[in-house]
């Protein structure tokens, strides 16, 4: 057995000279600097290398404390990130790989400049020491105004939190997860834990002892984490993380007050999903004393910001937690404002009514030359964008690995038919004739073959490259397979389904639909660029004689149909690609039908591929082979219509000196505690 370990030693430096040998800052006016350098190394076989980062900063006194941190890392190639952030400590890291045999250790010093993000020409402001010199944390009276498309509703209890509320609750730094992914390679970063390890099937985390719940609900312990996991995966839970726990983890418990332990059912290349995504820390005491209804409306989290007020479809008010154990915010108050219209957002940014907002590439020229406006491309492990789903493909067999009717409990009373087949109600020829892209499922191979021809025709009809070139100015990437795009290394262009109107018409005629057909298309209101790109793609279907009937409603209005597996329409979703195909967040396995949420596209074969990938831990060659099998299966059956993948940008106005967020969540701004006010 081989273990991977990461050790971290922390140097706390007071620059004022008045601070004696203590490992804390002496006051809020101290001018300090953090230099962080992370080196992540791909290992395909056991290696015998230690990389040590040495940071030298002139100081008057240094106090060093070592804390052990144990991690597993699987990445594609060496990646190096350098950040300079004005905070109150200097961090150095040593990444050590320990193999159970005598090894020779080599220490290598690495000093390089940070490479610019790939496929972007944006100049991104970097933090400087002077940006926060002399500014207290939080700065008294400071207010940060952030505009987004939809603030959501009071919906904070994990098992009840629907998308995007489930992720909003920790993206806005109200609640905390165990870990987060940062940077373009999705490096795991501690949140509420001091160190952790994955030893075989056992995940063990040593929690930070100074974590406190908001509003005086006391210290957080491992008992709270065990209870939070139990509640998140409640049967009937609508949180998208519920299936991540239920499908992958066999048990979880508190070993003691500050040790949380969870055991996987089997080796899983995507074990991290439940640790970083949607599973956040609740106060067991608050839930038991106040009840679920109260907890759903009152956010009792542990993050750097505390919820002060939320008004549905209007605003959220956050207040900084002074002396937060992890990172005290710079802005005392954050107002998150709902501004659905991007033109209104831009106008308010120019007048100073808002300070931070998302912006799409099509609108970028309206703000790029504004005085004091900074454009940010936040680090991302992939791209967002839009994907075409041909809903209603329920090709799973009762009793198969992908058959999970219990996941639908509480969402649809009629999921079980008289025959005992939980999805038999959807498997009929009449439905197939109404939705030519579906086919009659498991009952008629000939008709199923015709449905594949229809899906291929609809995919050939859309000129995704033209959409990318005209709307996104060539900054996006075209995808032909769910969660994968052409920009991915090793992509086989032979699998492209490129724009070809003549071929699309031939396929429709072969399927028996030469005269076309009318069909509903749903585009959720998920942001201006997403809607613009999706609408442009819909128009191409008219060229081959089809009549799409466009429907635009809020995502939350249709989510119950998605959960209950009744979304048998063509629809678009803001799903893009990931930088590495089998991690950090390997997600094409969603097409297996096992989750609470799903694309309403479910295949037995996808369940088999997911199982194969899950146990291919550490075997890059095997992972690529499984990935290729997935590509081939997807294109043989044309499961989705592919998409155009891109990341929206963020901008901040002159009231913000710097915002050093280290990952991109798309719908919401993240790590607002790192936004620094201008003097």
Description:
With 679 residues, the chain is of the alpha+beta class. Among the domains are: 1-116, no CATH class; 383-425 and 455-646, Dipeptide-binding Protein, domain 3, CATH 3.10.105.10. Helices cover 21% and strands 26% of the residues. It has 15 helices and 31 strands. Strands 20, 22, 23, 24, 25, 26 and 28 form a seven-stranded mixed sheet that branches. A five-stranded mixed sheet has the order 4-1-6-3-7, with no helix packed on it. A hairpin with a 3-residue loop joins strand 15 and strand 16 (315-320). Helix 9 (445-460) runs antiparallel to helix 11 (501-511) and helix 10 crosses helix 12. The longest helix is centred in the last third of the chain and has 18 residues, at 620-637. The chain is globular and about 70 Å long. Residues 1-130, 404-428 and 581-585 have low confidence and may be disordered.
